[in-house]
Amino acid sequence: MRCIKELSLKELKEWLKSTNEPAYRAGQIFHWLYSSCVNDFTEMTNLSAPLRQKLTKQFEISPLRLVNKLGSFIDKTEKYLLELPDGQTIESVIMPYPRRCTICVSTQVGCRFHCVFCASGRNGLIRNLTQDEIIEQVVLGKREGHRITHIVFMGMGEPLDNLDNVIKAIGLFNSPDAFNIGARRMTISTCGIPAGIRRLMDLRLQIELSVSLHAASDELRSRLMPINKQYPLKNLIKELKEYINQTNRQVTFEYILIDKLNSSESDALLLSRLLRGMNCKVNLISFNDTAADSGFNPPIASDIKRFQATLTAEGLKNTLRDSRGGDIQGACGQLSLSAKQ
Ligand code: SAH
Q: Could you tell me which of 75, 71, 130 has the C-alpha nearest to residue 97?
């Protein structure tokens, strides 16, 4: 059966027309689906009983099943294990803060880019998520009682490798008829695919763009992120300068700090030189161990401090991301096909 969340407002209006129902019902249905987040057409009490019946006959309401929910003892982070209609599983993470609540959504089952430090790509790409599978992660978070204010496309998968569906999802998140979340409260994180960055630039979506850099030399970045062999730093940086120029927006660079690999003072200087003059900031993330055999470790606290201090002294804006949900394998790079293992 077709999931109703595959339909845009316009498509839903057309469907209503085809069954002799007034088009304004579409707005009411959207409100039930994305604002009240109900899980059954019978709960849509301002619709007529015949319309509710028609909807129940024609459509499913949710493409995801919440299989497991883990709550962190350290912070209030929650991790959801979700089953898709074909039995595949994905994860999403909710991070409540005092005045906002961020959800980290997945965009693919697995990932094709094989960054060596990341658990999500270990088994390669299985498939793209559909638009409704992406948005339903937020619906489930809301249904669990969270007032979600921010969305980051930083879960499993590479958003720019599934850009059509990600763009459709952003449209719904943004829409006053659906989630009504401002574009500036959404962040796409990418391993750096120039064609995708260009498309985002042309769309002028006002979203935040985050680029996973992790190394300031081609030699090291290619070792950590195989995509760098295809699009070396020179190309990536050139594309991003164009993006910044055209959109007038700041770009964030994610930089995982790994002990004895990319976290020395000279690495910090190299990074500062690479990004000099760009409207950007660096978000440092201490490496999260995803597997016993990775061979990587996070640096000690004093090394992290020194790295940060060097960037600051070089005039490069930076923040250190507080890692959340570490005890539930919910931290960066830890989302995986855990149910299958
Ligand atoms: N494919 C996208 C989004 C998913 S990864 C991307 O590459 O940006 C989200 C972020 O988590 C990226 O910055 C990624 O590099 C980072 N990450 C992956 N594995 C990690 C690990 N083991 N420790 C810390 N951060 C990690």
A: 75
